[in-house]
UniProtKB/TrEMBL annotation:
Record-linked Pfam families: ROK
InterPro entries: ATPase_NBD, ROK, WH-like_DNA-bd_sf, WH_DNA-bd_sf
Similarity-based family: Belongs to the ROK (NagC/XylR) family.
Transmembrane regions listed in the UniProt entry: none
Gene3D superfamilies tied to this protein: 3.30.420.40, Winged helix-like DNA-binding domain superfamily/Winged helix DNA-binding domain (1.10.10.10)
SUPFAM superfamilies: Actin-like ATPase domain (SSF53067), Winged helix' DNA-binding domain (SSF46785)
Name of the protein in its database record: ROK family protein
């Protein structure tokens, strides 16, 4: 197919201007036509034409008046939250959660299905997702014609394409075509991506990453991953697996990781790795629930517990320093349930540890912050995959 700037047609340009204005209103609205002209660099005539089209199709609505110095009051415009809806799905270790949002990302309905830790059979997960879609559509009273699509956050590596083939070792999923399984039960547009990436995108759009064009969301839970955004775009690599930060080596011939390799960052700072090191140091873990166990370890004042926490901060700091050196981000957001538990108590120490490993110049240009949305933002993030497509 011929492409490139020299082949852009008038229709392409119009579609491009539409996307520019929709995005400006979605992330910066409400705004007057004059503010939009200033914010986008488009001409006043173009803004007037394109917003007239968007108003006619109902994608945007008027949102009151704002005084202008000396002149007539100006009409404010914003995206119409009712124009479309998106479903976000979180396929997690212990549940499948399906949530329906309007365009303003207000949650309108929700369905939850528990998964037993050893029961991640792909057919069962697909049935839960399809059942959840029907439930939230009925509960919210939203017709299928108003649905923009379904975003799904899953563990592991996702091959992008209609079949959405997933490789998730922790689930025992080898080449599972989740897209094909779901296509048998729904005709809605489907967007599948790694759950850490979707949670990262939620932080970037609505949380601690807001407004940053070069940002990394570093997610630490049972697994460890990163969502890397350079110049406003998520870095994916050839097949979409980029950002597997947890499987970068921090100790040659070190601890065995869940991926099979030795010495991965995840084997040291992922919840399982931290608790494993604590047990080896003589610590006693009294629960199967990783979240409860990690919280207890962080509260534990014993010498063994303090040592394990100190080492965890050092390893995670080294991993963050690597991110600074490789990507020169303006902001790193530490999220994921384990990252939040650790960061709430030890953020200054984490920053300091990162600074010991990062080069001084890029380290000075970056800030390391905690995520704002909490660990349950996977479904919200999955819904942003749908909204992203709508905004283009
Ligand atoms: Zn690994």
């Amino acid at each position: 197919m011929m492409s490139g700037p020299e082949r852009r047609t008038v229709r392409d340009l119009r579609r491009g201007n539409r996307a520019i204005l929709l995005r400006a209103l979605y992330f910066g609205g409400p705004a007057s036509r004059q503010e939009l002209t200033g914010a986008t660099g488009l001409s006043a005539a173009t803004v007037s034409n394109v917003t007239a089209g968007l108003l006619a199709e109902g994608a945007i609505v008027e949102a009151g008046l704002v005084e202008s110095d000396g002149g007539r009051p100006r009409v404010l415009l914003r995206v119409n939250p009712e124009h479309g809806h998106a479903i976000g799905v979180d396929v997690g270790e212990t549940h499948v959660r399906v949530e329906l949002f309007d365009l303003a990302m207000t949650e309108r309905a929700k369905a939850d299905y528990a998964l037993r830790p050893a029961r991640h059979e792909a057919g069962l997960v697909a049935r839960h997702i399809l059942a959840g879609i029907d439930v939230v559509l009925a509960e919210a009273g939203v017709g299928r014609e108003r649905m923009l699509g379904v975003g799904i956050g899953v563990p592991g590596i996702v091959e992008h394409g209609p079949a959405a083939v997933i490789h998730a070792q922790t689930f025992g999923w080898e080449s599972v075509p989740l897209g094909t399984l779901l296509r048998a039960g729904t005709s809605l547009p489907l967007f599948v991506d790694n759950g850490a990436k979707t949670m990262g995108q939620a932080e970037l759009w609505f949380g601690a990453g807001r407004g940053a064009r070069h940002a990394i969301v570093a997610l630490v839970g049972s697994g460890v991953g990163a969502n890397i955004v350079t110049d406003g775009v998520t870095y994916r690599g050839v097949t979409g697996s980029a950002g597997e930060w947890g499987h970068t080596t921090v100790v040659v011939n070190g601890r065995r990781c869940r991926c099979g390799a030795l010495g991965c960052l995840e084997a040291y700072v992922g919840a399982e790795g931290v608790l494993g090191r604590y047990a080896e140091a003589g610590g006693v873990i009294t629960t199967d629930d990783e979240q409860v166990a990690l919280a207890a370890l962080l509260e534990d004042g014993s010498a063994a517990a303090r040592q394990v926490v100190e080492e965890t901060v050092a390893y995670l700091g080294a991993g963050l320093g690597n991110l600074v050196n490789l990507f020169n981000p303006e902001r790193i957001v530490v999220g994921g349930w384990a990252g939040l538990l650790l960061g709430r108590r030890h953020l200054p120490a984490l920053r300091e540890a990162a600074g010991r490993h990062a080069l001084a110049q890029p380290y000075r240009q970056t800030t390391i912050e905690l995520g704002e949305l909490g660990p349950d933002a996977v479904a919200l993030g999955a819904a942003t995959l749908v909204i992203e497509s709508f905004l283009q």
